[in-house]
Amino acid sequence: MARCFREHAATGLTILLTSANLAAILPFPDIDPVAVSLGPISVHWYGLAYVAGILLGWFYARRLVDNGKLWLSDTAPMTRQHLDDFILWVAFGIVLGGRIGYILFYDLDPVLANPIRAIEVWNGGMSFHGGLIGTTIAMILFARRNQIPAWSLFDIVAAVAPIGLFFGRIANFINGELWGRVSDVPWAMVFCSPHVIAAHNGVCPAGPDPRHPSQLYEAGIEGIILFLVLFILTRWALALKKPGTVSGIFVIGYAFSRIFVEFFRQPDEQLGYLLGTNWLTMGMVLSLPMVAIGLWAVIRARQAAARQMA
């Protein structure tokens, strides 16, 4: 009888713990990806995230330019007008680079088989690494055309970039995309909602299992934490006086943040894990070279500053 009691108690405890785990799962908010509909025109949260990131970044960049004490010789190497003119350049760099990068890094074979897929953004969105390359090209061309120091322009864009990253990851979360790996942590979420299912022809692409809300991890680390680190560097450490330092730290910080979150994020379905592993992803592979590039930028900035003082 004692044995029977123990077995029933163990079964009851298992059911109780399972029920507790299910109750602990956070509900995924059912937010319509379309923020505003005006007749046939639909404005998506994803598009608004890009607009908000660019505009708030532009506003913060103007504040940095206005504060001469942050810059070498107490004078900013560019003006507000430069930043106003640069908005269109950076917008094209982010959008074109991000889309082309996604196709090249994540979706090349399907696009080669069906070229029209290149403009079907609902089958896959944007790549940060592609957007970074596109923005870098835009910055180099703009700096040369306007005869301003490219490294200082890099630093300003790097200082404000986490703002855009934050809004972009929040938009990913609202869309129920780029979800995390299956997990039993108390804050895991089932990324199925009526709007997500409707957007995928009645299917929940993430499945019924609770998963890490990795979009929120990225918003917090790549967005909030990285912004605060760069804010301290620019405001208190006066890193803008050594052109290249802020952009180098940003690249390093993003790379480590992305590599860390990739351990919780589900890899893209069409690629999966790389090299036969169950952990290596394309996001990690693309981020690793960024560490070396960022370190080179920081070292170069320190050496340039030392030569200038000599």
Automatic annotation (TrEMBL):
GO biological process terms, semicolon-separated: lipoprotein biosynthetic process
Transmembrane segments: 47-65, 86-106, 126-143, 150-171, 219-238, 245-264, 279-299
Pathway stated in the Swiss-Prot or TrEMBL entry: Protein modification; lipoprotein biosynthesis (diacylglyceryl transfer)
EC number: 2.5.1.145
Keyword Transmembrane helix belongs to the record: yes
Signal peptide positions (record): none
UniProt keyword annotation of Transferase present: yes
PANTHER family: PHOSPHATIDYLGLYCEROL--PROLIPOPROTEIN DIACYLGLYCERYL TRANSFERASE (PTHR30589:SF0), PROLIPOPROTEIN DIACYLGLYCERYL TRANSFERASE (PTHR30589)
Family: Belongs to the Lgt family.
Protein name per its UniProtKB record: Phosphatidylglycerol--prolipoprotein diacylglyceryl transferase
Organism, as annotated: Rhizobium hainanense
Gene (name only): lgt
